[in-house]
Specification:
The chain is an all-beta fold. 0% of the residues lie in helices and 57% in strands. The N and C termini lie far apart (40 Å).
């Protein structure tokens, strides 16, 4: 089993920055990739960014150039640095883990609210 705990959400003005953290515990050696998803009210869940154990990253077009995903293996933590935040970035952000040998994200955190408002 893998447990994920997000932190770092909050209220920020447009153009501001936040850094989200996703701390993993449990069978972390079985993790192949960590993803950040977000879901805004009335909208479908959106994949924001992913990072593999090898450090390969991918981003949604809507956040490229503004968000950066990174990991600290010594802390079993993945970060999402969000810069130049826009109103449309407002959502609940959740991290998810994908096990080695699987194609789906099976483990999820509880989510953290990010609100961008003036």
């Amino acid at each position: 089993q893998v447990q994920l705990v997000e932190s770092g959400g909050g209220l920020v003005q447009p153009g501001g920055s936040l850094r989200l953290s996703c701390a993993a515990s449990g069978s972390t050696s079985r993790i192949y990739a960590i993803a950040w998803y977000r879901q805004a009210p009335g909208k479908q869940r959106e994949l924001v960014a992913t990072i593999t154990t090898g450090g390969n990253t991918n981003y949604a077009d809507s956040v490229k150039g503004r968000f950066t995903i990174s990991r600290d293996n010594t802390k079993n933590t993945v970060y999402l640095q969000m810069n130049n935040l826009k109103l449309e970035d407002t959502a609940v952000y959740s991290c998810a883990a994908r096990r080695v040998g699987t194609g789906t994200y099976s483990y999820w955190g509880q989510g953290t609210q990010v609100t961008v408002s003036s």
